[in-house]
Amino acid sequence: MEAPPVTVMPVTGGTINMMEYLLQGSVLDQALESLLHRLRGLCDNMEPETFTDHELVYLLKGQQGNPFILRARRSLSHPTAPWHLRYLGQSEVGDKSRHALVRNCVDVAATHSLPEFLNEMGFRMDHEFVSNGHIFRKGAMKIVVSKLSRILVPGNTENTEHLSLSYLVELSVLAPAGQDTVSEDMRSFAEQLKPLVHLEKIDPSKQRH
Amino acid sequence: MQQREEKQLEASVESLISRVAHVKNALHSFIYKLENEYERLTWPSVLDNFALLSGQLNTINKLLRNEKTPSFRNQVIIPLVLSPDRDEDLAVSTTADNTFPLLKKEVVSLSCLFTCSQKLTEQRVPVFSHEIVPDYLRTKPDPEVEEQEKTLSTEAARIGPDVAQKQIQALNKICTTLLEKLSNPREDRDAESAAMRQSKPSFNPADTNALVSAVAFGKGLSKCRPPGPVAPGHQGQGSMMSGGPTLQQVTIGGGSGQQAGMGGPVAQQQQGQTGKMPSSIKTNIKSASGSMHPYNR
Questions:
Q1: Which domain holds residue B60?
Q2: Residue-wise burial string across A84-104, b where 16 or more C-beta atoms lie within 10 A, e elsewhere
Q3: Which UniProt keywords apply (chain A) (predicted)?
Q4: Predicted TM-score of the model (pTM)
Q5: How many Å apart are CA A198 and CA B19, to the nearest integer?
Q6: Which of A67, B187, B189, B291 has its C-alpha lying 20 to 30 A from A163's C-alpha?
Q7: Which of B225, B265, B294 sits opposite A155 (nearest CB)?
Q8: Among partner residues B204, B261, B262, which is closest to A166 by beta-carbon distance?
Q9: Terminal CA-CA length for chain B
Q10: Each residue's pLDDT tens digit, A59-105
Q11: Does the distance separating the beta carbons of A204 and B212 come in below 8 Å?
């Protein structure tokens, strides 16, 4: 029994409910080259793309428990490109057989006045980091290999320090709700990256403490 | 008897010419493909071309080894006319059947009338002069190659037959073990290579968790909120932050040091700090909902 087709559900807004399917893993610095070679072979043939992004995470605390989190991201390598604002919902639990982490995802682009706007709205920046690395694509799947760096002086993206000796590897797909074949494809792709990197469903709530 | 040999020679030369023409055509189309369609070329099609060439070379070899083929080593090609002028005229015939002066039984000299060299060779040999004769009519290998061959054969003669036999056996053994290894089922190979790879892990699960937590909720990243009783968990992370201590000192030190704690490009609002410091700065701009406070009190 699959989810009802999207057109049957009440359409309240102009967007389709997109879900992000996510698998994460990491690879040590010394194994990065072999991973990149493998990805270059497995993924779609395109010029290897590197990126340097600065992500700021904003929190809006309500009276009740969970704060509302928005992620604002801008490119440090393309300073004139618009900012990218993303909302990620809670990961859907329950279906243990599903191989990827599934959560609701809303993406919009924003102008460069986004941080001030969010501050005016009442959001407060919780943390920020710089991420740089490579991005690959295979069909609808996006594979990001990135190095996270901690920002030592807030606002100063030049002065950064690596968070760990590994690169974070993320395999993600944006798909409308209800498509479960996506996670099968993701799992078979993840198999091809073993044993270099183990991509798996990591529940962040379990990592908390 | 002579005529039979002649006929055999003729026939074999004909078939050789046709085979070589096939090779030439295959090479021509392959080079064209490489030069003009290299963007669309895939490795399997390149392999196909190579396989075709190798097959054609094989047929030439078989032809030469055929019993019906007379030994070409006994034939000699002597150019009759060499001229430094460009030569475009068409010859009377391309075969040499009317140029067989029979001098001796074993040596039959093929005198080729290269008067049509340009047309015959498709403009590749415009002049049949004394410059091209050493290259095109060469029968012996280069002097350097000859030297190398001579040293190799003296070396081979020197080591003696049993040593040579032993070396041959060793080489055969190595080849067979390699072939076996390659043709064995994949599981055997995987077992060996898995053992090798265990000594060099390519990922660290602890790092994975650290990175995922950092991305998901900022664990390990310096918080912009000043540490206070509301955030006891973050204090414990102070040891992980190298730049942390200075930041904490700045925020605890003074109320106006709040600027550093705000982060972001612009901090229009001045908010009072939580915890131990009394707020000395009043807010002018309220957030959208009056009951919502950015910091828990």
A1: 1-74
A2: bbbebeebeeeeeebbbbbbe
A3: Activator, Nucleus, Transcription, Transcription regulation
A4: 0.49
A5: 55
A6: A67
A7: B265
A8: B204
A9: 119
A10: 888 877 778 889 999 999 998 999 999 998 888 776 666 778 888 88
A11: yes
